[in-house]
Amino acid sequence: MSGHEHAVSADGVWKIFNEGLSNEVTALQDVHLTVDTGEFISLIGPSGCGKSTLLRVIADLTDATRGQMRVAGVTPPEAREKQLYGMAFQQAALFDWRNVRRNVELPLELQGWNKDKRKERAMELLEMVQLADFAEHRPWELSGGMQQRVAIARSLAVDPPLLLMDEPFGALDEMTRERMQNELLRIRQETGKSIVFVTHSIPEAVYLSDRVVVMSPRPGRITDVVPIPLGVDRDEDTRESDAFYESVTAVREALRGHVGGAGMRARVGEV
Amino acid sequence: MSEAWADRLKFVWPPVLIALVFLGAWQLLVVARDIKPFVLPAPTLIAENFFGGLDLMWGTAYYTGTTALLGLVFGTIAGIVMALLAQRFIVVNNLITPLAAGLAAVPIIALTPILNNMFSITSRTPRVLVTAIIVFFPMLVNVTRGLVQVQPVQLELMRSMNAQPRTVLRSLRVPNAIPFFFTGMKIAAPLAVIAALVAEYFGGPQQGLGSRIASSAANTAYGRAWAYVVAAIITGLVFYLIVVAVERWTTPWTGRTSSA
């Protein structure tokens, strides 16, 4: 730590549902994780491994049973109050009674921005996700991928340093999904955000991330952290490079619980 | 424009055709079997009475329509206020839900004679009150559902944006409830006309549809009695269609599912 603020740091975080009852579930067991400022981290693992729960603890949508979570150096409730993060979900969760632009304006409205500044900022963001032409359209007039881009624009509205994304491309078809991944990398390049991204697609995690955090269920815990040495500039060619396949293999093996192998893996405790 | 009208006509002509065939068969039956008007008057007789006394029809429907509208407005306001309380205070919700279910089984219209004694029978008040009570329940149930049945992901989104409960109510729950409000209104509006009309059967001022149907039938003016029934049907339809029109105009997103 030593003065340097991590985007996220989890220190011995546990989440236990129904603690002490017969239906007790340990969703997170002793999670240690740090996300550096500007880093792109993916959480990957099978259903029930706690990846969404971990994201929700970071976002203060639920609280940790034990342990310490810090977001940009403050507690999750403080981070939420100060809007130090923006969040996108698997469902775009747009409000049908607002047009596209006013959906993007929603977080600004809650922050008390005035009308003109709101509109200006929303148009800037729609420009960034290449939907400026659809500003006055209603959400249902947009395709699934376009709706998700609106949701991403909305999550960036207050210009938070951290983006939390819970399987945002999970409901999209493969082609749209890859386009959205490129888009997200571009937005990351442009904005320099730290990103925590939940997915269960191995290629998606590898293509996007600096490090892939591998999680395992019953109890939900981090079993491995795989660094992805693909550099900063990634494009369609990256997807077909040997380094990409090696990383995919490394993550796949980590998911299967193999020990050793690629040699580019660090044990959780050492990260 | 003309194409849009042609499109609309495609939807209009089947029910119109069925209505004409039905009326034709009715007329034929009455004439062929020489059925007496006190059993079933011919459509032509009803039409004669209806169009012959158009001013009377309008005035009568206007009186009952006003009662229905007043009851609809008061019942709707009460239903919305109670729904807001129910979504805010779980205690109120727990009180209301069984109460609403229980009261829905009470034949409220049967309270009219009692209300006639409690309030002045010569005024419109007891009828408006009965109508309002009848309107209250579908409005309460539907609006409550709309305020409560918000997508969990939208609630989480609001929380992630640090929205306070008041903002969640204003920016999410209330707009979410508007389509439900209209569902309630589509039930309540025609119901209000029926309630206002039936309430007139229990005495009081005689210038309404219910009173006139009863007195015409008692005076063996069956054609006129049926003409008033037609006026009642039209009044109910007008109430319903106004609700549908306002719904289309204000909530174009109803029935669309985009951001599931």
Outline:
Chain A is α/β, with parallel strands linked by helices.
How is this structure best described in words?
Chain A contains eight helices and nine strands. Chain A has 271 residues and is α/β, with parallel strands linked by helices. In chain A, helix 3 runs parallel beside helix 5 (144-155) and helix 7 (202-208) crosses helix 8 (242-256). Chain B is built from ten helices and no strands. Chain B folds into two domains: 1-35; 46-250, MetI-like (MetI-like fold, Orthogonal Bundle). The model of chain B has no long low-confidence stretch (mean pLDDT 89). The longest helix of chain B has 35 residues, at 54-88. With 260 residues, chain B is mainly α. The radius of gyration of chain B is 23 Å and the shape is globular. The chains are: A alpha/beta (271), B mainly alpha (260). Chain A binds chain B through residues 59-61, 80-81, 83, 85-87, 89-97, 106-107, 109-110, 138-142, 147, 164, and chain B through 151, 153-154, 156-157, 159-163, 167, 171-172, 175, 178, 251-253, 256-260.
Which structural traits does this protein have?
heterodimer, A: 271 residues, alpha/beta, Rossmann fold, 2 domains, six-stranded mixed sheet, three-stranded antiparallel sheet, 8 helices, 9 strands, 34% helix, 22% strand, globular, disordered C terminus, B: 260 residues, mainly alpha, MetI-like fold, 10 helices, 79% helix
